[in-house]
Request: fold
Amino acid sequence: MTLMDTPPERAPALELAGVTKVYGGQPPVPALRGVSFTVRHGELVAIVGPSGSGKTTLLHVMGTLERPTDGLVRIDGVDAAGLGDRELAALRARSIGFVFQQFFLAEHSTALENVADGLLYAGVEVGERRRRAADALDRVGLAHRRGFRPTKMSGGERQRVAIARALVGRPAIVLADEPTGNLDSATGASILELLRELHAEGATIIMITHDGDLAARLPRQVHVLDGRIISDSGSAPGGGTAPGSGTTSGSGAAPAAVGTSGGPGEGE
Ligand SMILES: Nc1ncnc2c1ncn2[C@@H]1O[C@H](COP(=O)(O)OP(=O)(O)OP(=O)(O)O)[C@@H](O)[C@H]1O
Ligand SMILES: [Mg+2]
Reply:
């Protein structure tokens, strides 16, 4: 280990600055009220907060599933506002894996098909999709459930299928919304262990949880209340760089080329 091992400056994995999100309606709901924070590559971050505080909204905005009402969202140094819906869809397919709060599994498809569909937009041919899906299911301990439909599986098994689907494309960033919610503590612990392994392999992981004890076992905790970050323990010294340092992106660091044209096609 020498100083030369220090990697060249790289844009953060995720960067939010002054992000607000107001859901329209009567009355409008200000779900995010000015959120700024930075997640460096290779971090493992817990987002904690009570129900309705804006955690899922924050995750969706970070993952470019929803555009903020105001403020800046950068993924790997790329300003999401500058990308069209198709480009964002391509960016997500390439580098972000989602574990949704309601798993969103297709009930009439088998576990294997559900996971393989996670590669549909990644340009992988069908045989390879199935092979990788089988590997991912193996990984979450569900090799024996490949042919099962979600309706025939337990909550924890479904949660693991959702995780396998999020991971099958080996995304650089994993955004997980309550991946251990509704699970007994042993199953929850095994899911957490899986996320830790992925993190050890280099993935950047952001995980929402209600469980303060579980969050406390992760290197960084961000507490959300009423659409604002009320505390942030900062980047772990081992993981990214120093905590709380300012915005340091800008120069051409990230290889986040987005190849598609900026067509007006509606995203999903
Ligand atoms: N599509 C929507 N339209 C209008 N309001 C919404 C919408 N989605 C969320 N909200 C509101 O925004 C606020 C934040 O919701 P969000 O789902 O982000 O909370 P959360 O912290 O994830 O809660 P939970 O822990 O219960 O999942 C809530 O007041 C919610 O009612
Ligand atoms: Mg939520």
